[in-house]
Amino acid sequence: MTTLAILTAAGSGARLGRDLPKALVDLGGFPLVLHAARRLVGSGVVDALVVTAPDGLRDVVADLLITDAHVTVPVTVVDGGPTRQASVAAGLAVADASHDVVLVHDAARPLVPADLVRRVDAAVRAGHDAVVPGLPVTDTVKQVVPGDDVELVVGTPDRAWLRAVQTPQGFTRELLERAHKAGRERSGSEAAAATDDAGLVEALGEPVHIVRGDAAAAKITTERDLRMAALELED
Ligand code: CTP
Ligand code: MG
């Protein structure tokens, strides 16, 4: 069996608010996308990498990864799409059909531990066709009727049943392709796009499994998250 990783890096990083896309923002001397690529490759289970690049920056991203001594697997860089889902689909479209397992990882989670990558990959190889890392939710979560200012609470799900999910999310290539194809066919008829790949698999009615996530794989969305990641790097 071989594993391909799709590394999504095509977002603009609007919430970070820098003058360059989030994946190219520096963290301790290296851009986020390079941290993420090194950690995926460093896991030892990734045989090839496809990276989705922001508009006009395909060559910049390719130079960065292909010249890096730690990125020792073949790298293909493609233009991303207008949404994360479209970017993953663009990556899948160039995926070599010989890979049985696909891990989808966000450059916005640059400090993903190699162990976590191996845990997800191993669970897929062991026969779970869709595997997502997740952590118990520590906050109490309310369901609301969304409003502008004051919102009405309509329920409190039992926290014991909730998991906050991360990436990499792992799939058999066949299932991930089927889920994205069905997602494309549904789009237009359904309001919200899926915010993760597992959501597309769930929409097919296929099972998704959770393995233990890791706080170090936290997502960088805001400046505060970036500062937390810098502290994590110093440890
Ligand atoms: N992504 C992508 N293509 C898009 C949108 C997002 O490849 N059209 C990637 C981002 O680069 C990121 C991951 O998907 O690695 C998760 O997205 P998010 O954290 O929302 O990043 P951005 O979209 O860049 O940030 P923002 O939503 O604040 O603009
Ligand atoms: Mg986004």
UniProtKB/TrEMBL annotation:
Q: What is this protein called?
A: 2-C-methyl-D-erythritol 4-phosphate cytidylyltransferase
Please name the HAMAP family in this protein's record: IspD
Gene encoding this polypeptide?
A: ispD
Write out the GO MF terms.
2-C-methyl-D-erythritol 4-phosphate cytidylyltransferase activity
Q: Where is this site: Positions MEP for the nucleophilic attack?
A: 159, 219
Enzyme class label: transferase
Reaction(s) this enzyme catalyzes, per UniProt: 2-C-methyl-D-erythritol 4-phosphate + CTP + H(+) = 4-CDP-2-C-methyl-D-erythritol + diphosphate
Pathway where this protein functions:
Isoprenoid biosynthesis; isopentenyl diphosphate biosynthesis via DXP pathway; isopentenyl diphosphate from 1-deoxy-D-xylulose 5-phosphate: step 2/6
